[in-house]
Design brief:
Elements (H helix, E strand, L loop, with lengths): L1 H26 L4 H12 L4 E4 L6 H11 L4 E5 L6 H5 E6 L4 E6 L6 E5 L6 H4 L3 H6 L1 E4 L2 E4 L5 E6 L12 H4 L4 E3 L6 H9 L3 H7 L6 H13 L4 H16 L9 H17 L7 H12 L14 H9 L6
Parallel strand pairs: 1-8, 1-9, 2-5, 5-8
Antiparallel strand pairs: 3-4, 6-7
Length: 317
Amino acid sequence: MQGSQARSTRLASRGLGEQVLAAAREVILGKDQELRLSLACLLARGHLLIEDVPGVGKTTLAHLLARLLGLEYARIQFTSDLLPADVIGVSIYDRVAEGFRFHPGPVFSQVVLADEINRATPKAQSALLEAMEERQVTVEGETRPLPEPFFVIATQNPLFQIGTFPLPESQLDRFLMRIRLGYPAAEQEKALLAGEDRRRMVARQAPALLPAQLLGLQDEVVEIHAAAAIIDYVHAILQLSRASERFLHGLSPRAGLGLLRAAKAWALLAGRDFVIPEDVQAVLPAVVGHRLVAAESGGRLDESTVTRLILDQVAVP
């Protein structure tokens, strides 16, 4: 009886996830893997970094996810003159109350789009560090909690473009996943050119999930079982990254925890209550690609390189 009930719960969870993905596919064409990774990232209570050239749908994807999840949404356009107070908020003197009153910034939303985050200076970028890690902000000595759930979806332009400031390692590590959308395939691009404006389609989308359902799915991710062999597999990946001469430095324990959490979310979307090695392999490039630096060039590694260097050398349990 308990087994059939658990199976019914898993199927219901998978059904909710498929509802979100089906609605997202109507707007973002031909990017099923990227959409599934994005949803897994949010179900794992992570933050998402979307890196690509302008005009491929990064901002549209972020706005779409907020609409489909039925959450309060705020967009921050990061520019070189952005100040931390523009993100967090500021205290303004209230003449009636004869005291300062705090006016919350856009970070006090459930979904925050940090658009073109690497066009702001490191000082402005750092305004998100505490919020992303501890889900709170400290202003003038007072700690203020952020709403639940709380997601940061940031878009980033390639570093070779004019006016960009590279994200420091501490900022990159706050993002559970980094994905790239890339150019659409020929058929999808023709359908995009002939179809309706994507912004209108996003505005017309109804929420596919209630906030309570989303929180329930996030709680289910925590309960997904990871056997001892899976723990050993994840640990072997961490150890290889630290021992390999190809990387400037290895993956941190926080990266390992994020990898396992993302694999659990991937398993949930597949309708399982346990993690298999393929779940870890599916999310590995997005989770570790932005955390590893090549020892020779000092540059970030692309996802295919990470997959080849790590998965080919770690035995599958």
